[in-house]
Amino acid sequence: MITNERQYKITKAQHAKLQEGVNEFDLEEATERIGSKILAKAELDGLNSEIEILETQLQEYESLKSGAITNFQANSLNELPIMLIRARIAQQLSQRELGDLVGLKEQQIQRYEAEKYASASLRRIQEIADALKLSIAEIAEINQTPKSKTASEKSNVPEWDKFPVKEMYKRGWFEGFQGSISDLSQEANELVENFVRTFIKKPTLALHRKLVRSGSQLDSYALLAWECRILALASKVEITKQFQPELLTDQWIESLRKLSNHRDGPAEVTATLREVGIILIIEPHLPGTHLDGAAMLLNGEIPIIGLTLRYDRLDNFWFVLFHELIHVMKHLKKGKLENIFDDLDANTSNEIEFEADTLAGDTLISPKDWNVALPRFVQSAESVQAFASQLGISPAIVAGRIRRESKNYTILGELVGQNEVRKHFSEISFGV
Q: Less CB within 10 Å around the terminal CB: N or C of the chain?
């Protein structure tokens, strides 16, 4: 995590250097130099992975530094130190300025933040929280901000001009609007309000009946816009089968799992889910949301799985799909938890997310099979393909699990199905 301007500048320089390396990367030359095209591609994948990590860090710091964020959510006390750091940045306080407020030197604040307040006493943490004007319960909220809150913020009603209007227009979300992008300025607020209120009569940015898993600072307005888009598309789908949990038999789940081994498996998922009354919607995420997928209820009853295909890889597609399916099966309840949004890159201690992660993995590959799986110990393409064939599933699922568990994303890159998902949904623009 970036905690100060010096780190921000260093990270930005590292990002620029890595991006230059990717731009100049010659796959043929690297293959000749290394003696393996697979290893050469792994080297390129490693560079791209590092760039993505740095971009996430930069975006989070820039978002916090803007001062627009005033509340933070922690799922456990272990996340409190990160909350303190984010709150300081969000209030545009330097480490030196925070130190002055609590009578400490800048270097001490730097040490605290570098070690995530591990050596700080509870009293010291309370002093820091008081200096940052935080009230801490399940939610830590800044009680005072440099700018006074608007009436809209006080009433918890969205400020319509904060929605990503241009991006929504570009994607054709405002049906019936015939004007050009230059005409948006006059009608934007009305267009957005109508768009949102069509499906959410009393819109609010609070996480009421929602669970959001996010590894970086979230744009709540973009999230609400994406949520309404999913609901809008789902409302147009004709459902012939009413969803009932008992329809999701072991036999049906097995048939869904084995679609992964079909050449057109991703395209066949929509109809398979429809058989049990679940709607699948593909919609790319909006900037500032970092979403992989979501599980939602339309009208409190009809389950929806929304996928962004943020990563165009088969391993990611099948894991996210089954993760959201677990949410549908076990966690969505009318009037209780009706919307779950997931950035699966984010670590989480939330019990619901932990259960969905675990059961998704266990459903794709049973613990009994995985415990004796040769690819866990011999991480070769041959062992992965043989094991996948034995189970009747895509090798991408096996390769992806090995990469996740080992936290090594430079291996088995040729087996995860890169660029093998979005092509099945050619009617959707992914901005590439």
A: C
